[in-house]
Amino acid sequence: MDTTSWIWVIVAVVVVVLIVLWLVTGRRRRAMELKRDESHREKAAEMRRKAGDIELDARENEARASRARADAEQAQVDAARLKQEAEQTADSARSLREDVAERTQKANALDPDMNQDGDARADATRTDANVHPDDATRTDATRAEELRRDADVNPEGDERTDATRSDATRAEELRRDRERTDRDRPLAT
After folding, report:
1. For the chain, counts of helices (H) and of strands (E)
2. In this predicted structure, what is the pLDDT of residue 125?
3. Burial of 141 (0-12, 13-18, 19+ CB in 10 A)
4. 113 and 147 in contact (C-beta within 8 Å)?
5. What are phi and psi of 163, to 5 degrees?
6. Is 53 left (phi over 0), alpha (psi -120 to 50) or beta?
7. Among 22-26, 54-58, 91-95, 149-153, which stretch is predicted with the lowest mean pLDDT?
8. What is the pLDDT of the chain when averaged over all its residues?
9. Taking the CA of residue 58 as centre, how many other CA atoms within 13 Å lie in the half-sphere pointing to its CB?
10. Portion of the chain with pLDDT greater than 70, in percent
11. How many CB atoms lie under 10 A from the CB of residue 36?
12. What's the alpha-carbon Rg for the chain, to the nearest Å?
């Protein structure tokens, strides 16, 4: 064979080898592209899952923040309500204290054994012919009880007069006021 035909055979072999190489590398390239596309799909799916998890976390955090805001607002409402109740209770207590002071002052004004400032009179414990000897040791409650009994039972059998009823009523009010005052007074420690 001559050189020209050898050249043509070599060129044909080279062309065939190039075609085979091109086909083989094309398949590899497609396989690599398929692998790369598959790995990209997996990465994209993983990224979507992570994004979904992050979205759930974000929504959960927003819900917690909303609950915290609602709890804070509820606490403010509760605090305002408690403050109002405390003010009302304090006003009520102040009113009761004023009422007690007023009643005590009235009772002291009515009681012949007490001065206007609430102190016991010096002459209240003395006894004379018209006063029973045990009167000095009797308590206000027993005096009030005796006044009430005296007002209810008149030795002459007469009906009670308005003055007697008024004295009995005052004595009873005095007894009640003293009981309230004793009950409200804090214990000494």
Report:
1. 3, 0
2. 46
3. middle
4. no
5. -65, -40
6. alpha
7. 149-153
8. 79
9. 6
10. 67
11. 10
12. 54
pLDDT score, position 86? 94
Q: What share of the chain is helix, strand, coil (3-state, %, to 5)?
A: 80, 0, 20
Cβ-based neighbour number of residue 123 at 10 Å: 9
Tokens for 129, please give them. 């012919």
Full DSSP string of 95-145: HHHHHHHHHHHHHHHH-TTB-TTSPBPGGGG---TTS-GGGGT--HHHHHH
CB count within 10 Å of CB 91 equals: 10
Q: How many other C-beta atoms are found inside a 10 Å radius of the C-beta of residue 147?
A: 19
**Cβ-based neighbour number of residue 107 at 10 Å:** 21
123/29 Cα distance (integer angstroms): 127
Q: How far apart are CA 94 and CA 168, in angstroms?
A: 30
Tell me the mean pLDDT in the region 89-117: 85
pLDDT in tens, 59-84: 999 999 999 999 999 999 999 999 99
Distance CA 177, CA 101 (A): 10
Length of the chain (residues): 189
Token pair listed for 151: 């007002």
